[in-house]
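Quick one, T. Sequence first:
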Amino acid sequence: MEKQPLTILLASPRGFCAGVDRAIQIVELALQKYGAPVYVRHEIVHNRYVVEGLKEKGAVFVDELDEIPDDGRPVIFSAHGVPKRVPDEAAKRQMFYIDATCPLVSKVHREAERHHADGRQVILIGHAGHPEVVGTMGQLPEGAVVLVETVEDARKVAVINPNNLAYCTQTTLSVEDTAAVVAALQERFPSIQGPHKEDICYATTNRQAAVRAIAPKADALLVIGAPNSSNSNRLVEVALVHGCKKAKLVQRAGDIDWQWLADVNTLGLTAGASAPEILVEEVIAAVSERFAVTVKEIAITKENVFFKVPRVLAA
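Structure tokens:
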């Protein structure tokens, strides 16, 4: 039986960003240098395939430091960043810890601290409960940061002094949604201070731009990523807003609903910043078993960002 033709429009850039790549390298290098086990507080990045692979190599993932015995083994903090209380507790217990926080998240932490030191109340634009938001809010004393998620939140947020404010953002938000929230804040608080440079990271921006380029040309779009991955969920939203009739998140090829693809001639395909390229290849192979596939890569820019690992592991 002849296979139905299907064109895959493959987004580029896609998949791993420099911060995710660095975080995974930190765990792998720690395992090589110190042996197993190496403890990791929270998922190092939001991807089950990556986490399971590191578990097989000897990484032990925990939710909090009190689950870790005082055995002198290395403890790694995830790429999303942690509240200040976490390294403080680790130091009190004389733990050997390595911070894998993405440098672009650390930049937001330093901005928030600078604004607080200058006496400003900080408004953080982000998603409640996301580890990055918890980490950023945890850089400052209770009440120094107020969270807003939507334009509606921005219009009604209560502040101490409307003339002495600053805003920061989670690094993995929708570029367009965040712009709307910032505009609402600036309308209410004309003197509000913003970051020197955009907080939303280059990888989030580039992956969303690639999806915007593909969405109007695709009958459907698949995003490879984890359900708890902020940047992956935003890619689904961007596709739907920019002209793709249907878009969904899948973790792996085994999650694909083939009935959903029955009437699709052109399929957009991308991967969130914590999804490895091997999962993209797995999806293309699975689709190729059922369709006569032609892959066209749609590249909007080339990324060459690289972040060094901590000095303790570089030797």
